[in-house]
Amino acid sequence: MSAETGRTFSMIRATRALTAAFISIWFVLLQTPWASSNVRIKDIANFEGFRANQLIGYGIVVGLNGTGDGTRAEFTKQILSNMLFKLGVTISPSAIQVKNTATVMATAELPPFAKAGTRLDVLVSSLGDAKSLQGGTLLLTPLRAPNREIYAVGQGAVSVGGFGAAGAGASVQQNHLTVGSVINGGLVEKDLPLSIARARKVRLDLYKADFTTAYRMAERINDHFGSILAKPIDASAVSVEVPEKDQADVVEFLYRVENVTVKPDAKAVVVLNERTGTVVIGENVRVSTVAVAHGNLNIVIRESPEVSQPAPFSERGRTVVVPRTDIYVSEEENKLMLLPEGITIGEVVRALNAIGVSPRDLISVIMALKEAGALQADLRLL
pTM to 2 decimals? Predict the structure, then answer.
């Protein structure tokens, strides 16, 4: 075997060693105490009704440099005609040129407890066939809730966060030019009908339903306040009664509730992504008694083409390139390794690293463990 081939195999072995070390560090980090420590209730649940609301509207972006809707966008002409009529200008839609104008859908998120005068960011997206919203200005656009009531209006300069330019034979573009933002361009017009004054009972909705987490949450709230106030309703909700002494200041009571810490529970899950070689293993994963062996086959192909010259003064000879291929095969022999029942994920990782698996090899081993019924976890493939 040549020196070059030896260096190739050395690089492969070094890469595997580095990969194995990275996997060990990654899974050790997943097992550190902070990965499963207590978290605040406000980070895993929210109070019922105290949520954001979606707003939507359609409007006009003007001031575009010939990159607006084309002549086929009849609805843009109609909208412009209606808007100008309301401003005291009567003009037929057929007489309007819309290349400097684009019809857009405007969306925004109304946060909970928003008051009149609160500023919002507005996202605008082209509705027609405009090429770019760069440099445009959104005209006054009502933003409605699903009940069709207007809660905010939007207006201002559109920022697309990129640029585009084109010539006769070439063009350049950075980022998406038909979607832009109007930073602080939304203005709330009326308060949300939401009040917590004198509330006697509130409900906590978990972001991720889990009976164990709901029970722990109720238990921790009761321990914190020294009385039975919380009761789990189901896997996704916990009911909390507001004590009579705290009904005069419900905000302070909710402040104390949402800062109670609890240890959330999670199912045993293994997530595999074969495209990227990513492996994520949860804390509660366990393995039954099983024996594992994994062999790695390395094939190195080296092309060394040679030039063949004809003999001197040859009448029919010609210079040709003759291919030359060298193939080297190396197979690592790994012994059968026994993984005893009930071992933790850290021990699984150390055992698999001992037989020298890469991330993609690890995916194959984990899938084989699941097929054999030895992996006590939910296996998810991305």
Answer: 0.58
All CATH 3.90.76.10 domain ranges in the chain, comma separated: 39-49+196-262
Q: Residue 235 and residue 279: Cα distance in Å, rounded?
A: 28
Dump pLDDT digits (tens) for 105-133: 999 998 888 888 899 999 999 888 888 88
Q: Which of 218, 202, 201 is CA-nearest to residue 210?
A: 218
CB 110 within 8 A of CB 152: yes
> How many CB atoms neighbour CB 339 within 10 A?
18
Q: What token pair was written down for 293?
A: 């062996």
Judge whether 286 and 343 are in contact, CB under 8 Å. Answer: yes
- Given a cut of 80, whether residue 57 has pLDDT beyond it is yes
Among candidates 80, 146, 152, which has minimal Cα distance to 122?
152
Written as six digits, the tokens of 90 are: 């009567």
The terminus-to-terminus CA distance of the chain in angstroms comes to: 41
CA-nearest of 127, 186, 188, 126 to 160 is 126
- Neighbour tally for 120: CB within 10 Å: 22
CB 295 within 8 A of CB 332: yes
Residue 279 bridge partners (DSSP): 272
* Residues in Cβ contact with 119 at an 8 Å cutoff, skipping those fewer than 6 apart: 184, 186, 187, 188
Structure confidence at residue 295 (pLDDT): 61
* Chain mean position to CA 108: 20
d(CA 170, CA 150): 45
More confident residue, 60 or 284: 60
User: CB count, 10 Å around CB of 375?
Assistant: 23
Q: What digits encode the pLDDT tens for the residues 308-328? A: 677 676 666 677 766 665 655
Domain 39-49+196-262 belongs to what topology? Dipeptide-binding Protein; domain 1 (3.90.76)
d(CA 85, CA 104): 20
Q: Any idea what DSSP says for residue 265?
A: -
Percent of the chain with pLDDT over 90: 17
